[in-house]
Specification:
Elements lengths: L1 H7 L7 H30 L1 H5 L3 E6 L5 H10 L2 E14 L4 E9 L10 E3 L4 H6 L6 E4 L1 H7 L6 E4 L2 E11 L13 E5 L16 E7 L6 H11 L6 E4 L5 H39 L1 H9 L4 H33 L1 H7 L10 H28 L2 H6 L11 H22 L2 H33 L6 H11 L5 H36 L3 E6 L4 H9 L4 E17 L2 E2 H5 L3 H4 L2 E5 L9 E4 L11 E5 H7 L6 E6 L2 E11 L12 E3 L1 H4 L5 E8 L4 H11 L4 E4 H40 L1 H13 L4 H38 L8 H21 L2 H5 L2 H6 L3
Parallel strand pairs: 3-8, 5-7, 14-19, 16-18
Antiparallel strand pairs: 1-9, 1-10, 2-3, 2-6, 2-9, 4-7, 5-8, 6-7, 11-20, 11-21, 12-13, 12-14, 12-17, 12-20, 15-18, 16-19, 17-18
Helix pairs in contact: 1-10, 2-8, 2-10, 2-12, 2-24, 8-12, 8-15, 8-17, 8-24, 10-12, 12-14, 14-15, 15-16, 15-17, 15-26, 16-26, 17-24, 17-26, 17-27, 24-27, 26-27
Length: 833
């Protein structure tokens, strides 16, 4: 400790890059965790307002029964009923737009206040004018329809007057993904509109204002026990916006894994900085060894120094990572659709510290262990040029255990073992590839040096890259890994957008039509079948149900959090095997079957859940349980955005239940407007969902996700740039001597500068090319295996990566070219190194 304290008297010289890498690594992970925790805390504190009540019971395509309402009324001080569904809003001049309708009662909203423009009470806005019921609407929809407050429009067959535009909807975070902007009306104002007929696709939400101190967990258990077969779904203020919370946690975990790649780059910089620092301590270490210092003394002297400086970096990194989101809280909150409470949180700080401490230990033990094993005589000549290639086995075991601990921590915090392993494998593979590439670059430079005869600047650059003391290793490793992450993100983003915005529309239908009544099907088909621009029509009966039990066991116990179990799913029935349907296992029941309920399941989803032929599946439809035997598995391709049902039953099991039909229509783009106009005018209750609008909405969400991921990857690149600066700074003495020798033999400053610039640009371009290969490989793996879509190289992004690598390296090289350029040969060559 005494030796370490005396060494630290020299200040931070030689450790600036070390500190920078630690600070950036901690800051990136702490900032991501702080934003994630701030949103989570905001959701927790505002859970009741976001939900619209202390608790909510949701039913699929039915209203609560008298018994269910009585139970809610006995438990709650107030109950509010909300009906949620999609429909078409039509302006007086015939303009149409898809809207998500929220039909409310007098009690809405139980909590919070809805914001309107012009400012007025919701009761006043929904009262209407001159006997016409009122409505309030999202500004996006009113702008699309060309409506102003006071204008009239239609929902179904009823007229409404637009009273105000919605500026704030307190419970909008619970709605999840929606294809249409919001319209709010009174439930009774929908009478006679034709929008809530038998079999219409809608959901009801009953928000409850409970007495203070109500036991939410106990009430949930009681409700699910009393109405276990009614298909209800319970939510409460403990997690008022579960979809948002889950999304935030998943995105945060993914971004932390992206941040780990920044730590890996920082680790390379930490190791390089420590090696460079120890090489300047040759005489000190040799003197200590000569005076009898053993290996442990040498190791602990510099290990304690590293520990002190690492702690300083951790503190500064935490301050930066936690302080920045808090300082920028007003800007971040303005962009968030949910509340957030920005403050220092122990969880994210602990996570960042744990990751960083493990990373620092992993990347410092190796050079420290090698330093203690080198003999004093060797240290006087070259600190790291001789001695053992590998540290002793206890250090190798320790490094392996620390790496395992880092991966275990990442798995624990992210909650996703496969994603963590793929990320770790990708980082390790990229580091190995970049390490091999740096060796190959040095060898290639040596061979190409002779070919550059007659071009002195290029020859000097190649000699410097391939010669002893080359910075090719740290430059390619640090810059290459940061560029690799950005390249992979760019490839994934471009391919996913391409699959959605370019490939999908060529296979997807033009429209989804829902809520088609059975007696409307003949007229609906007549309009489409007589239109030569219509290239295809698929229609099927449509119900919604919740898969509640598998072999008389709760489905959630059997299938965990599988998406088929999580919500209500579309269910259809058919007698004959539908066209283009392939049975993979089992047999179809056939047109004449009239026995007990049978069900056919999507093969891929059945395999994920663990279903097999003969299993009994319980589906709750409109509050009634149907027990059906699994008799066949089918191929279902959801990637085309066409019609596909996870579950199909025999007609006798479902056709007596109230239901409507769904239809997908394939048509030429120029005919879409006429089809929509004719069908919505003749059948006002039918809802048309334009697939291209849905694609645009999804593309917008993906753009936001890609932007968030790119910001996370930028932290990696910034760390790489810092390591690159460190490599350039460490090489400055050698370049100064090199410049002095070149000047002594008559080289001009311009030619020397050209050589330095060429060296930096070549190394940057090489790092970019290797990063491009790693990024394309990583992008292909994620796109093909995870996204399960076709992959094509996005060359625009690729060219930017390569050129960006060359430019960054060139700027760093030129930034450190001033001192070598100003060097005086006589002073440099006479000086003792």
């Amino acid at each position: 400790m005494r030796f370490a304290r005396r060494e630290l008297r020299g200040g931070l010289r030689g450790f600036r890059i070390f500190l920078g890498c630690v600070i950036l690594g901690v800051a990136a992970i702490a900032a991501i965790g702080t934003v994630r925790e701030s949103i989570t805390e905001g959701l927790a504190q505002e859970g009741a307002i976001l939900l619209g009540g202390d608790a909510e019971i949701e039913f699929t395509y039915r209203f609560a029964t008298a018994d269910e309402r009585d139970w809610m009324n006995t438990k709650a001080e107030r109950v509010s009923e909300i009906v949620d569904f999609r429909s078409m809003a039509v302006s007086s001049d015939g303009e149409r737009g898809l809207t998500q309708i929220k039909a409310v009662d007098d009690a809405y909203p139980l909590l919070g206040r809805i914001g309107l423009s012009p400012d007025m009470a919701l009761d006043q806005a929904l009262a209407g004018q001159d006997g016409v019921p009122g409505a309030v609407m999202d500004p996006l929809l009113s702008a699309k329809l060309g409506l102003e407050p006071g204008d009239r429009f239609k929902l179904g067959t009823n007229d409404y007057v637009l009273s105000a535009e919605i500026t704030r909807e307190p419970d909008n975070a619970t709605a999840g993904f929606s294809l249409g902007p919001r319209t709010i009306v009174r439930t009774e104002a929908l009478d006679g509109s034709g929008l809530l007929g038998p079999g219409t696709l809608f959901s009801t939400h009953y928000r409850m204002d409970l007495p203070a101190g109500a036991d939410l967990a106990g009430l949930q258990q009681e409700a699910e026990a009393v109405f276990s077969d009614n298909g209800l779904r319970w939510s409460d203020a403990r997690n008022g916006a579960p979809r948002v919370a889950e999304f935030v946690n998943r995105l945060g975990a993914f971004l932390v894994l992206v941040g780990l790649s920044g730590l890996a780059v920082g680790g390379v910089g930490i190791s390089a900085a420590l090696r460079a620092y120890l090489s300047t301590k040759t005489e000190t270490i040799a003197t200590l060894r000569t005076l009898g210092a053993d290996r442990q003394t040498i190791f602990l002297t510099y290990f304690l120094q590293i520990g002190v400086l690492a702690c300083l970096g951790l503190v500064l990194g935490l301050g930066l990572g936690v302080g920045t989101p808090i300082l920028l809280a007003p800007l971040i909150e303005a962009r968030l659709p949910v509340p957030a409470v920005f403050a220092p949180y122990p969880g994210p700080m602990g996570e960042a510290v744990l990751y960083s401490v493990l990373t620092v230990l992993i990347f410092t033990l190796w050079p420290l262990a090698r330093a203690q094993d080198i003999r004093a005589a060797t240290l006087f000549r070259d600190a790291f040029g001789a001695g053992r290639a590998l540290p002793r086995w206890p250090y190798l075991v320790t490094i392996t255990l620390l790496t395992g601990g880092l991966l275990s921590a990442a798995t624990w915090f992210s909650g996703n073992l496969m994603l963590t392993m793929w990320t770790a494998g990708g980082i390790a593979g990229a580091l190995v590839m970049l390490g091999l590439a740096s060796v190959a670059i040095r060898q290639a430079a040596r061979r190409m040096k002779t070919a550059a005869h007659g071009r002195p600047a290029l020859s000097w650059a190649l000699a410097a890259i391939g010669g002893p003391g080359s910075t090719a290793g740290p430059v390619v490793l640090s810059l290459g890994l940061g560029l690799s992450v950005l390249a992979a993100v760019g490839q994934i983003d471009q391919n996913l957008r391409s699959a959605i915005s370019r490939d999908l529309p060529t296979r997807a239908p033009a429209y989804f039509f829902v809520d088609i009544q059975k007696d409307q099907m003949p007229g609906f088909m007549e309009r489409l079948e007589n239109d030569p621009a219509v290239t295809g029509i698929d229609s099927a009966p449509m119900l919604r149900g919740i898969l509640t039990r598998i072999n008389d066991r709760p489905a959630k116990e059997v299938a965990g959090g599988h998406w088929v179990i999580e919500g209500d799913r579309g269910i259809s029935y058919a007698a004959a095997l539908p066209e283009r349907t392939t049975i993979t296992q089992g047999e179809w029941w056939g047109p004449e079957y009239d026995g007990p309920p049978q069900i056919s399941f999507a093969a891929e989803e059945a395999a994920e859940i663990g279903l097999k032929l003969g299993d009994v599946i319980t589906v709750n439809i409109l509050g009634r349980d149907i027990n059906a035997t699994l008799t066949s598995l089918r191929e279902v391709d959801f990637s085309t955005a066409g019609m596909g049902f996870v579950m199909v039953m025999n007609p006798a099991a479902l056709e007596a239940a109230p239901h409507t039909f769904i239809s997908t229509v394939y048509a030429e783009p120029e005919a879409e407007a006429a089809i929509l106009r004719d069908l919505s005018a003749r059948f006002p209750n039918i809802t048309a969902i334009r697939v291209r609008d849905a694609i645009d909405r999804v593309s917008g969400i993906l753009a936001g996700l890609a932007s968030a991921t790119a910001w996370g990857a930028t932290a990696t690149l910034l760390t790489g740039f810092l390591v690159l600066i460190g490599a350039a700074a460490a090489d400055q003495t050698a370049r100064t001597r090199e410049a002095a020798i070149l000047k002594a033999i008559g080289a001009s400053r311009a030619r020397i500068l050209q050589s330095l610039a060429l060296r930096a640009a070549l190394l940057g371009a090489a790092a970019g090319l290797v990063a491009l290969g790693a990024g394309i490989a990583g992008g292909w793996a994620v796109t093909y295996f995870v996204m399960e879509t076709d992959f094509a190289v996005a060359w625009g992004s690729a060219v930017m990566i390569v050129s960006g690598g060359a430019l960054i390296s060139l700027l760093a090289g030129l930034g450190f070219a001033w001192r070598p350029m100003q060097a005086r040969p006589a002073r440099i060559l006479r000086a003792r190194e």
